[in-house]
Design goal:
Elements (H helix, E strand, L loop, with lengths): L2 E8 L5 H17 L4 E4 L12 H4 L8 H13 L2 E10 L6 E8 L5 E6 L5 E3 L5 E3 L4 E2 L6 E4 L2 E5 L8 H9 L4 E3 L6 H19 L2 E4 L1 E5 L10 E3 L3 E3 L5 E4 L5 E7 L1 H10 L9
Parallel strand pairs: 1-2, 1-13, 2-3, 4-8, 10-11, 11-12
Antiparallel strand pairs: 1-17, 3-4, 4-5, 6-7, 9-10, 12-15, 13-14, 15-16
């Protein structure tokens, strides 16, 4: 069987309700285009000052108002959601976890992955991000059983670590979810290259949701800019669907037989030596 999957692209800030409104708009649009599973980007509910993440973090799988609104959206639209960058309450009261959460179409919570690789960088444009100051890292790869088959979960900066995706393939993944908030500085040169590389080397579909544009806070401040270009790539590395600039969605057909065909035609996964 084939399935329709979607990825959405929004511009989040520190207005949680406004961000969730954007999620609802874009998910509904993806469903109208036939999507049965939709990936939502990292930081979808809150992208603001680092220290303020603690106030919006919720326990998982129980959740709170943010998760409940997403569960209601899944039920209302009959769609499976992959919520990237969900701020989860951690063990350390000074930190949160950056979780990727599967919400089934009946609103129940499925698999939960906690981001392993944390983004600590000082970029040439003056952007300084120290995710480890406010986020607890995860430690375990996670594959979710979804409508389209086994879906490997990851979050943003994980994309630069191919060994994670190889473990997801070893656990049966035929598609990889990459909800992200890639900066403009790195995204313009690396986003497409890395996503297509992960698709080619793991012989999987890649579903990459994205933040886009300048993230202005409610007080008018905010320098951070995201690259956007949410996309879906097939196991040959071909981009099947892609967002342009601004809010939107991209939807494409996922066919498990294409995965099997590519892996049979070019059996690199079976030729591994290390």
């Amino acid at each position: 069987m084939t399935f329709r999957a979607g990825v959405v692209q929004i511009t989040s800030n520190d207005d949680v309700e406004g961000n969730l409104d954007a999620v609802e708009r874009t998910v509904r649009r993806a469903v109208q285009e036939g999507a049965q599973l939709v990936v939502v980007p990292e930081c979808f509910a809150f992208l603001g000052r680092e220290e303020e993440k603690l106030a919006v973090a919720e326990p998982l799988p129980r959740g709170g108002p943010i998760l409940e609104r997403c569960r209601a959206l899944a039920r209302d639209q009959g769609v499976e959601l992959i919520l990237g960058g969900f701020w989860e309450q951690g063990d350390d009261p000074r930190k949160v976890r950056n979780a990727c959460v599967q919400v089934r179409s009946d609103g129940t919570v499925g698999a939960i992955y906690r981001k392993i690789h944390l983004f600590d960088v000082d970029l040439a444009d003056g952007t300084r991000l120290q995710e480890s100051e406010t986020v607890e890292p995860g430690s375990e790869p996670v594959v979710a059983d979804t409508l389209l088959g086994k879906l490997g979960l990851s979050v943003c900066y994980d994309l630069r670590f191919p060994e994670l995706y190889r473990k997801l393939v070893d656990r049966g993944a035929i598609a990889l979810a990459v909800p992200a908030a890639f900066t403009l500085t790195t995204g313009k040169d690396h986003w497409h290259v890395l996503l297509r590389a992960r698709a080619i080397e793991q012989q999987c579909y890649v579903l990459a949701a994205a933040q886009t544009g300048r993230h202005l806070l409610r007080d008018g401040s905010g320098r951070r800019q995201s690259y956007g270009h949410a996309l879906i790539a097939d196991p040959w590395g071909v981009v099947l669907a892609q967002c342009g600039e601004g809010e939107g969605c991209a939807v494409a057909t996922i066919d498990p037989e294409v995965v099997r065909g590519v892996r049979a035609q070019l059996p690199a996964l079976r030729h591994r030596r290390l």
